[in-house]
């Protein structure tokens, strides 16, 4: 019922299937008042709406009509409708005149697409005892509702709301308990007061704790979130659906929603956006109108802005630039910046969902970008890398670094023992020191995102410190560390390192070596040792590993394109990100050399033949896979006995592959027929 | 012909008057092709357009028609039209078939509103000799053109373009030379290649150097700037007009302009904004259309986005939130962030234009905000402040600080000699340490922007360092410096200061004292000594300074509202920014106490009676004024003999007041009739 079509970090463009049609996510469900709806939201972009089943139930006329003609005719909306259960009324008035079972029964009876059990929304910052007691009831009712829906073969889908107030352990517990049940969607409840008070930092804690314990395979709905200024941030945390009456409530109060905040009409000198309403009218025009007409127009503006932002978010996910959008949006208010900084504390978790390669470059938008998972990932890779005896640290000019690197190095400063041995790529790692990725081995200078990134030439102190700390962390792994004097200055290295002038600079030579380059990329991409295995020509290891290694370059760009063993292609190097694409021989060599579950997706023996035929692998047939797999990784596909069946590109990350029961997990490139 | 209606830093909302109507600035002049215009730009928001007089001149048919029916009918546009002279063609083809005088004559003949002389646009990064030679010709031709226009009593206004390539001293020289002439508008030329190459850092240098040497009283036109992603930044540097054919050229190339950059249709999965076109069509719809229809729609989108952004910029200037918008927009591309950081190098200049108080709060959007002129200004004020013997540094809780300050301080760390004397407001300055303003004396805790600012609770290292450095800078001015232990931790103070536990914490008392508070505000606002002068009750100083000081507070908010001497109000304290508003007695006391030009606007004796009648002061009658005057300052108005005539609020800053020859400079509150 839910499929991921594109992903960027925890953000995903998905499709939610309902009996009234498909919904593209992330999306906003405008709240429809069952009695007094005045705005035709579908005209302004709504694909799905939400209304309140309890309000309909409480009003005799509405109830009768809903039971008679159905919910869709009642509120005059053809698309999917979600209903809430009266929980909000329960939280405000302390009591409702309906039971959990009754409200479930009623929602099915009126034909809702997605119904909700009668959970208990617990406000933020309450006493722990209350939050815990409420949560227990919420879980109980979720169980009762789901059982009821399944036992009676209801058509509607069912929500199970995560509660727990601002107690993160309770949010975790609630999410984990609900995850054991068989719900269709997971809303995250009772966050509206956090958003109203601009407590976005706490919102990040609540949402990240909740989503980290929820299924990746089901849509997540951030209940009551309707302000476009937080859509990008919340999408980046993994939320798929938003709902709100803000578009109309704010309009009634003469307030304009924008991605930068809310503006009151009384403070407007100019219209604040490029929408139809803002292009046609002036603030004075609106002020002169009667209330009703004005409210209609402001509501239209609010919907245009909201759906415009959601389109932009989906576009950003497709491009791989969601975090760039989030980092920009989070400059609109200091409390959003606070939230962005808080989000970086969940970096380990975010990295699990971060694609290996993207269409768009990594943009440094401020020192907050140093905390992005891409940087964390590279830093960890460098730590794990097989190291040579010595290290040479070179300055950065233009990218790719190697292309613009001077051939001879006139002067170096040295840290560690000084010897007069020649320093070449044989006995030394040559790396560039740059922002934001820190240390970049020259062989990897075209690999995504080490080449596909931009940062300002005016460097900030935090970035400088970040880079010098990374260097400091690995200095002890080497005998001699030679550093270009330009860098010593630029990164204040003499304050943290004991440096002496190095007298043998003429002995230092970086030798460009295509084989070394492709081996380094292979190790970076598939794990240490992969390069030697893939690009091996050694009869003693058998036919599979025999054949002269030939590297073919593009005539136009001079970039490496294909690597052969004899006449067979082992791998291709993709021009856009310089990552290796396996071909049959490469897959075989990798499979034969790297043990355990490395780079592997293990599928059910029953679907072996499909894989061998080159058909893509569906998530539900994956028995296990390497926990290091991220979307866009090249993987090898094996059966339960580790027989190589095929190879392809992961569409999802490890955790998602393991959680999804629908949709494709691996786009197979080629299969090995029996 | 040009008046400022609202200002924020160097950004201004102005009105440019032409014979075809008024133009609100900042604004974009879409380029109209005299022969093949297909988009009705006025329908999508254009108030003024630009076209090329040379292209009309070169084409016999167009030339004849233009001379016959006039330019406005030729291009079918009723509003103001600016014309370019063929300089661009000159720069591309090396030569044009027209002289400077001829093109001036022709522009007047066809009825252009604003004409341009035949300047030489010199590309960036050329040889210095060329840039210098071109510039000399440009200046010569500007002189020739202006003389010609004035001698012949031409109706049209005349542009004088600042050139000088990327040589900042040449830009400075050119701007200074042109400023001596009598032009009506100042374009800044030949910056398009910088924008095309994303060399925004260099653009900042060129524009800031140019504008710093141009008249503040004339509109500045950034030639060829048409991408909405840089409008906010360029407005903040003092640009008033932009022009470009980008809306149509990009559309013809299937490219969408957005405030975040350019997107190609082929890469669009979703439409990128909330405009009419983006709300009605999908990328697939556009891809399926014929070229002409698609180009029209993309051009419409481009215009909607451009004019929407300009409205937002004018709104931001009115609110006083222009830099917040700039700091957000500059996150869209690392090279824009580079530009933002470069802009901070012109802080001293920007401070000259920064209003003293604004409607909106100061938002910390990243460590770049620390470099804003408001912060620089406050830091300088604290350095200049009269200091007591000791200093007590308190932590910040909520704002205003005094309200949420604990009464007793349990523990302090001390830097400097420890004595057992009581530390009270008598012998100590009590300040809070906070981000971004650093040290805030408790008496100033409600004064703009020290209270009206927000920053994230997750602090960055640069901000922490900034605050601790400010403390470090003044520690030596005091005997004892007591610091709350919480701060020592938060700001890593023990790494930079020699701290000991202070054993007499019970002796430390901040005594809330309303008189001390208003005196501190007066000193901060009008200069050291102003507080003692304004709030004096001393018969020996004469009647003017006699009368019991009474402080009246708002019953509702508890805030100080009026300060009396006997029955006469000296000053009022404005609720929104806690700055003092002079009344008659206050103005007299200030005038009698503070000598020289302090807080004064000296006006021509010939208009003395208007000021005494309470009429506002026009800029052209100002003979001199205090160089510390900024817009929204309270000032006293005197004649050339320093007789007090009136008092009021500055609408402009010192430099602007001295440069403008039209419009109001001071809104007079009250005059002293003779």
Largest sheet of chain A: 6 strands, mixed
Low-confidence stretches of chain A: none
Straight-line distance between termini of chain A: 34 Å
Question: Largest interface, by Cβ-Cβ below 8 angstroms: which chains and how many residues each?
Answer: A-B, 58 and 58 residues
Order of strands across the main sheet of chain A: 19-18-15-21-16-22
Number of strands of chain A: 33
What proportion of the residues of chain A form beta strands (DSSP E)? 15-25%
Number of helices of chain A: 25
Question: How would you state the average pLDDT of chain A, rounded?
Answer: 96
Oligomer: homodimer
Fraction of helical residues of chain A: 25-40%
Shape of chain A: globular
- Summing up helix and strand content along with how strands pair, one would put the structural category of chain A as alpha/beta
Output the radius of gyration of chain A.
29 Å
Give a structural overview.
- 2 copies of one chain form a homodimer.
- In chain A, the strands form 10 sheets. In chain A, strands 19-18-15-21-16-22 form a 6-stranded mixed beta sheet.
- Chain A is built from 25 helices and 33 strands.
- The first copy, chain A, is an alpha/beta fold and 674 residues long.
- The first copy, chain A, starts with a strand and ends with a strand.
- The interface between A and B is large, with 58 and 58 residues.
TL;DR?
The structure is a homodimer of 674-residue chains. By secondary structure, chain A is of the alpha/beta class.
Give me some keywords for this one.
homodimer; 674 residues; alpha/beta; 21% strand; globular
């Amino acid at each position: 019922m839910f499929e991921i079509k594109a992903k960027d970090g925890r953000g995903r463009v998905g499709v939610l299937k309902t009996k009234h049609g498909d919904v593209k996510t992330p999306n906003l469900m405008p709240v429809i008042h069952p009695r007094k709806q005045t705005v035709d939201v579908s005209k302004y972009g709504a694909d799905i709406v939400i209304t309140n089943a309890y309000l309909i139930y409480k009003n005799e006329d509405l109830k009768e009509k809903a039971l008679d003609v159905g919910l869709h005719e009642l509120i005059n909306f053809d698309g999917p409708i979600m209903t809430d259960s009266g929980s909000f009324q329960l939280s405000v008035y302390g009591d409702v005149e309906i039971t959990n079972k009754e409200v479930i029964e009623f929602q099915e009876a009126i034909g809702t697409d997605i119904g909700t059990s009668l959970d208990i929304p617990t406000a933020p910052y309450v006493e722990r005892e209350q939050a815990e007691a409420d949560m227990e009831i919420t879980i109980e009712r979720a169980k009762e509702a789901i059982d009821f829906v399944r036992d009676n073969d209801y058509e509607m889908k069912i929500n199970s709301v995560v509660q727990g107030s601002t107690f993160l352990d309770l949010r975790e517990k609630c999410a984990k308990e609900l995850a054991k049940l068989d719900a269709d969607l997971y809303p995250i409840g009772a966050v509206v007061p956090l958003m109203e008070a601009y407590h976005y930092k706490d919102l990040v804690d609540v949402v990240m704790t909740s989503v980290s314990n929820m299924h990746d395979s089901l849509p997540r709905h951030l209940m009551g979130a309707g302000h476009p200024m937080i859509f990008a941030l919340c999408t980046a945390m993994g939320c798929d659906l938003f709902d709100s009456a803000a578009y109309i409530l704010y309009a009634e109060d003469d307030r304009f929603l924008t991605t930068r905040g809310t503006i009151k009409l009384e403070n407007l000198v100019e219209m604040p956006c490029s929408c139809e309403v803002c292009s046609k009218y002036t603030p004075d025009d609106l002020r002169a109108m009667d209330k009703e007409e004005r409210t209609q127009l402001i509501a239209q503006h609010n919907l245009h802005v909201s759906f415009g932002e959601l389109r932009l978010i989906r576009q950003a996910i497709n491009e791989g630039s969601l975090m760039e959008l989030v980092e920009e949006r989070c400059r609109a208010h200091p409390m959003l910046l606070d939230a962005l900084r808080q989000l970086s504390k969940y970096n380990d978790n975010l990295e699990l969902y971060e694609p290996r390669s993207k269409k768009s470059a990594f943009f440094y938008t401020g020192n907050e970008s140093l905390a992005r998972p891409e940087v964390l990932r590279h830093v960890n890779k460098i730590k794990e890398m097989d190291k040579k005896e010595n290290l040479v640290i070179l300055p950065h000019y233009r990218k790719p670094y190697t292309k613009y690197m001077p051939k001879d190095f006139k002067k170096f400063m040295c840290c560690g023992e000084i010897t007069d041995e020649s320093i070449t790529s044989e006995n030394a790692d040559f790396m560039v020191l740059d922002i934001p990725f820190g240390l970049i081995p020259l062989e990897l200078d075209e690999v995504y995102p080490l080449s596909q990134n931009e940062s300002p030439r005016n460097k900030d102190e935090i970035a400088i410190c970040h880079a010098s700390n990374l260097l400091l962390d690995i200095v002890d792994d080497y005998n001699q560390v030679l550093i270009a004097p330009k860098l010593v200055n630029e990164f204040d290295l003499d304050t943290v390192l004991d440096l002496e002038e190095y007298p043998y600079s003429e002995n230092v030579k970086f030798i460009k070596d295509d084989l070394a380059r492709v081996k380094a990329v292979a190790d970076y991409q598939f794990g240490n040792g992969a390069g030697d295995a893939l690009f091996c020509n050694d009869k003693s290891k058998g036919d599979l590993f025999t054949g002269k290694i030939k590297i073919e370059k593009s005539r136009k760009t001079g970039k490496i394109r294909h690597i052969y063993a004899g006449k067979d292609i082992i791998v291709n190097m993709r021009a856009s990100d310089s990552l290796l694409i396996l071909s049959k021989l490469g897959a075989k060599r990798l499979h034969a050399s790297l043990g355990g579950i490395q780079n592997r997706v293990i599928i059910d023996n029953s679907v072996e033949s499909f894989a061998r035929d080159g058909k893509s692998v569906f998530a539900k047939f994956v028995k296990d896979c390497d926990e290091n797999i991220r979307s866009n990784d090249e993987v090898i596909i094996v059966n339960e006995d580790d027989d190589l069946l095929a190879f392809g590109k992961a569409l999802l990350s490890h955790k998602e592959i393991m959680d999804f029961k629908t949709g494709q997990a691996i786009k197979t490139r080629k299969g090995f027929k029996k």
